[in-house]
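Data card: per-record layout.
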Amino acid sequence: MRSGGWVRLGLVLAALVLIADQVSKWAILTQVFGLPEPITTGSWHPPIEITGFFNLVMVWNYGVSFGMFAGGEPFMRWVLIALAMAITAGLTVWLIRTPRRLVALTVGLIIGGAVGNVIDRLQFGAVADFFDFHLYGWHWPAFNIADSAISIGVVLLIVDSFLGHSHQRRNDADP
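The structure for this 175-residue chain is written out next.
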């Protein structure tokens, strides 16, 4: 397939991630927690136990991964939005230029997730995180579908970097 086909594939995947992320956030925020806007500092909503290892929680992430850079300065929201959009622009250029299907898919996952979290920052000033997996008292940091897509995309890019171009020739050849 021509690289243009991979661009379309990556963009379709980005759109699907974005839609799934935004629909899930709308459903969790409005239908489960009844929250039209972020919880103010000091507010708290009790976790909703789904299984013995999974809860729905309401966490507003004002920083980046694992809450890093959540200093509370009002300008930080705009810095993080600008940074995410710059990275998304760079990823889009990479997507346009890649002749590789796996790279197009992984970049599409990351773009869709990044845009989903930017929408949260624009709308709420923070990213809505609500999936809480736990085991023996240890909780993975709360996350959302956008975060999952970004993480999966990054891991697959790392795996792809170890596979090399011989893997690409086998999988991307026209039938």
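Known properties of this structure: Residues 3-32 form the longest helix (30 residues). The chain has one domain: 3-172.

See the next section for split statistics.
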